[in-house]
Each structure stands twice: as C-alpha cells, then as structure tokens.
C-alpha cells in the first residue's frame, strides 16, 4: 500500500515468503500522502523479512493514521512489527528540510498479534524526534524468538498504550497500563 488510500479492509490473508504486509513509501512525492482507516484482520505471515511494516520518507509530508492490525499469527518473521519514519535520500523535499518535516504516524493499533521472530528485536518503533509517532497501541501481543528465547522491543520517539499481555514488554512512552505483564 502506498499513499492516498482510505477505507481499506484486508482479511483472511496468508503470505510468505517475501516482504510481509507493507504500508510503505508514504511521502515519497512532493504532494502530501494521506493514508487512513486501514484494517488488516486475520492473517498468517511466515518466513518474511517484515511482518507488519509502516515505512515513511523522512522528509515527506502527509500522514498515516487510523491503521489497525488484528488477529495475526507470524512464524519466522525477521521484523514482526515495525514503524520506520527514517526512509531517506528523498529526491524532492516536501517544502522544508528533513530536520523539520516527516510524515505523521498516529492512531496505529496492534491487537492479538502472536508468533515467532527470526531476529532478537520483534518490535521496532523508529520515529521522528520532530514528528513523533503518537497513539500507538499494543493489545495482547505475544512475540517470541524462533529459538524460544525472549525477544526485545525498541522505541524512539513513540508514545501510546499497552493492554493485556504484551511480550516483549512495551517500550512505548506512557504505555504502562493496568494488565500489562512484565517479562
């Protein structure tokens, strides 16, 4: 999926090997990309480089918001959950420098996501210091390493909440909520 999509529903999908589900290259053109009201529900993802990816151009403009990933099972996925606002080398800046602009990412929900990660880091929210990711929600997320060892989460400039059992432990600013289990 790329920019200027709204009211999209994807259901009952099985994918892999390959890239997984990618909402990507948002903000690639000098025109604002608007992506919202996207729902991905009931999926099986196996042997992919990414699981659920949102990728934006660092100096792009527009937004990705109101995206919900629900009821997803992953097996041997290298990067199960990832938001990356740092895609760079953009040829046409959106009216200003990369230090002051980026695509806004907000109201992103991950609900009932389970499975195995091929890498140590199962959750990555790499967001802009200037336009942080806001209102990211993790509810009943259980991702472990394929080896059976614990996986990790990384957050930069991302805030939101966590509820239910969340493994690996949420790193979102403000995520400590009732019902979050420590690992």
Automatic annotation (TrEMBL):
It comes from the Eukaryota. Keywords: Cell wall, Cell wall biogenesis/degradation, Glycosidase, Hydrolase, Secreted. It holds the Pfam family Glyco_hydro_28. One of its GO terms (molecular function) is polygalacturonase activity. It is found in: Secreted, Cell wall. InterPro entries: Glyco_hydro_28, Pectin_lyas_fold, Pectin_lyase_fold/virulence. Gene3D superfamilies: Single-stranded right-handed beta-helix, Pectin lyase-like. GO terms for biological process: carbohydrate metabolic process; cell wall organization. Its main location: secreted. Belongs to the glycosyl hydrolase 28 family. This is Polygalacturonase. It comes from Aegilops tauschii subsp. strangulata. The lineage of its organism: Eukaryota, Viridiplantae, Streptophyta, Embryophyta, Tracheophyta.
């Amino acid at each position: 999926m790329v920019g200027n999509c709204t009211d999209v529903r994807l259901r009952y999908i099985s994918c892999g090997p390959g890239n997984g589900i990618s909402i990507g290259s948002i903000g690639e053109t000098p025109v604002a990309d608007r992506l919202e009201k996207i729902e991905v529900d009931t999926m099986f993802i196996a042997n992919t480089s990414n699981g659920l990816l949102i990728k934006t151009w660092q100096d792009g403009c527009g937004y990705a918001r109101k995206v919900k990933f629900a009821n997803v099972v992953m097996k041997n996925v290298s990067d199960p959950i990832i938001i990356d606002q740092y895609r760079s080398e953009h040829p046409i800046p959106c009216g200003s420098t990369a230090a002051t602009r980026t695509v806004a990412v907000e109201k992103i929900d991950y609900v009932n996501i389970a499975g195995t990660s091929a890498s140590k880091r199962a959750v990555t929210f790499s967001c802009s210091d200037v336009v942080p990711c806001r209102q990211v929600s993790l509810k009943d997320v259980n991702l472990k390493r394929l080896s059976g060892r614990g996986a990790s989460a990384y957050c930069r400039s991302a805030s939101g909440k966590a509820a239910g059992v969340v493994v690996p432990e949420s790193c979102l600013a403000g995520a400590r909520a009732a019902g979050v289990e420590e690992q």
